[in-house]
Amino acid sequence: MQRYKDEGILQNTDGYLRHTFRANMDHRISEKLELQVSSVYASSKQDLLAPASNGSGSYLASALFLTPIFNLDVGNEENGAAFDWDIDNTGQGVTNPLYDRLNSRQTVRRSRLSGSLGANYYAKEWLTLSYAATLDHTVNDFEHFVEKGYLSSNVPGLFGNLVTAGVQGSSGGGIHKSRQAGNYLTSRANITLQKQRGKLNAAVRGSFLYENLTRQYDEAIGENLAVSGIRSLDNARSNIAIASEAEEMVGYTGFLIGDVDYKKTYIFSGLIRREGVSLFGPESRWANYHRLSAAWRVSEMVNLKGIQELKLRASTGTSGIRPTFGQRFETFELINGTLTKSTLGNEFLRPARSMEIEIGGNITFLRAFDLEVNYSQIKTDDQIILVPLNGAAGFRGQWRNAGAIDATVYEAALNIDFKKLFRIAIPDFRWELMTTFDRTEQTISSLDIPSYVTGPGLQQSSLFLIEEGQPFGTMVGEVFAKDLSELTEQEGLNPDDYTINPVGYVVRKDQLGTPDERPYKLRDANGNPIVQAIGDINPDFRMGFAHTLGYKGFQLYALFDWKRGGDVYNLSKQWLYRDERHADVSQYPDVTAGFYGSQGLYNVLVANNHFVEDGTFFMLREAAISFTIRQGLFGNFIKSMRLSLIGRNLFTVTDYSGLHPDVSAAPRDENMLTNRFQNAPGSDPLTPNGDPNLFAVDAFNYPLARTLTFGLQLTF
Asked: Is residue 355 domain-shared with residue 433, that is, in the same domain?
């Protein structure tokens, strides 16, 4: 049983509370039959950040947009509320985030019940029969409640104008509720045969898996509340709307797995899998996959001085990425009684298919060093892409298998045992360093449709190019010239009329230091802005360093994270240029604000090279000190006690100008049909599976919190 509470770092929030109960039982009924039963129940309540955890409407954005001369704690003179909603009277139209938080609350309650039942029957020494069934039931209950009398020039969440008091006689306020319930059932039977003949060991396992997934989503929303504080849908009097969605998936999979080793030196493994899923088109109902691997423990055959273990490995295999429910079937949108066509179904839709070849090795040498290296080539064919259709079809597009991505992955891990290296003879002493390295290169090798741009779904964030031959993660945008040599191919322009200003951009000499000073934007022969590659989100490499030092019950631990390269698009900075809120605007006294405005670097939020920054960083991800008492306490009632102090995200070294270069996007909202609403995370249908983290940008993302945690663990 576990209780976990995190109050969070924002005021006026209840944070996160979770209760978990777990029960497991293993029982051997006889020498040949054993039974396993397990169950987990978890329930949680969380105050969500509103209206979104990143984007221009977040609390962080509102706080930064406000003119920094006002007291946010001033009361509201209009209705006596604790905070004044329009504290900024400079005409920016930004709502006080403290007022918003007090009067507009989003809460989600989650519950999950998971259980499994399994049995193993050892029929013979060489024959085992087994069966396992699992059921996972989840429920998400979401509520967004806006108090009656709410005042704001910005509509929160998915509400309309009548959520604001005084608009068309409305009393203001609103309520939005949704429930998502899902059931995932699996049933699996296995038969395993294993035999040893001399120095040869072999095992074969056949398996059958049945899957059944159902999901039901319902929501209702309304505005203009009749009574304050009543969180009932009956309280809404205007703009009442309902929505629902239901999905069901059935899958059948058969496996055949074989493993062989000879003298524990030559190791072979193979797998054949055949899968049929209702999400596949009826003309492509079944998919076949395989895996083959081999390993040679060289050190078992050859005595290599200073090397205790040397193993060489190679493997190849295929796997699939299933289509989603909405990609397979013909879909319509029925909103407020209005039916519109969305996507055309595809009876030939197949799962995306990945083919991987991997070679690697493990070596233990000088008794203190353990090294693992891997090299992989991955080709993912039949990428599922939304293909636009012409107007005559009546549908906006159809999901098809229309692309491929090639990836090359380099991985390495080195563990050093300093106790063995320096021959330290102190008992119960530990000193180790684990270093990891990875590098990934991805290229779009084929695309059967015209190139396009996509992004995480937030406003003006579609700046990632999907084009054959380009790296996956390429940013494109307009370009402001930084060197006079860039002007040589600009038609009708004399480079001698231009110079470099203090910010580092090309400007006209006669406008330098005047209110008309503007950066020069590169253009084509027709006078249109040139759009070209301006960045790449893929890092050169990423490394981790985990250091452990311990003596008896005392232990020190530190985890460092180093990312080299990988560009970040700072959309937060671009937004702040609009209202002259960023410090850059006042950095150069001789450069006027217009240089940064709509006709300058702000560029009306159109992506450009100025906001692409190097995302390199080195940070202390985690540090911990702990002490464990292993002697029994209170008459051995407590077997052991562990005290720990853990710090996370303690410091970061970077040249990135934003809050933090380790950018991650808000996930696609699990509590709403966010794909139906413009600028919601995951609303861009061209992003694979709607994942906003695939193309993350810095759009007022909440920075990583620095935390200190004290822990007490008792073992009874």
From this structure: yes
Is residue 445 packed enough to be buried (19+ CB in 10 Å), middle (13-18) or exposed (0-12)? middle
| More confident site: 10 or 330 | 330
Write down how long the chain is: 716
Residue 589: how many CB atoms within 10 A of its CB?
8
430 and 567: one domain?
no
pLDDT in tens, 54-93: 567 788 888 889 888 888 888 887 777 789 888 888 777 7
Question: Is 634 within the bounds of a domain?
Answer: yes
Q: Quick one: pLDDT at residue 574?
A: 96
CA distance 83 to 657: 32
Least trusted range by pLDDT, from 291-300, 364-373, 662-671, 684-693? 684-693
Structure tokens at 319: 């796997």
Which tokens belong to 580? 């002259």
Please tell me the least confidently modeled range out of 52-61, 407-416, 512-521, 651-660. Answer: 52-61
Does 621 map to a domain? yes
- Residue 152 token pair: 């704001």
Task: Provide the CA 225 distance to its chain's centre, in angstroms.
Answer: 36
CB neighbour burial string for 143-152, b if at least 16 within 10 angstroms, e if fewer: bbbbbbbbbb
Strands 104-124 and 331-335: unpaired
Cα angle, residue 636 at apex, residues 633 and 642 outer, rounded to 5°: 45
Structural domain total, the chain: 2
CB atoms within 10 A of CB 293: 16
Given 417, 450, 483, the domain boundary residue is 450
DSSP labels, 581-621 = -SGGGGT-TTS-GGGGSTTTTSGGG--BGGGEEE--EEEEE
Residue 95 pLDDT level (bands cut at 50, 70, 90): confident
Tens-place pLDDT, residues 382-391: 999 888 887 7
Of the pLDDT bands very low, low, confident and very high (cuts 50, 70, 90), residue 155 is confident
Among candidate residues 413, 432, 450, the one where a domain is terminated: 450
Range of the structural domain that residue 619 is part of: 513-524+544-715
Q: Report the C-alpha gap between 238 and 327 in whole angstroms.
A: 34
| Any domain includes 17 | no
Calpha distance 229→283 (Å, rounded): 54
Query: Which of the 8 DSSP states describes residue 280?
Result: S
Task: Write down the pTM of the prediction.
Answer: 0.91
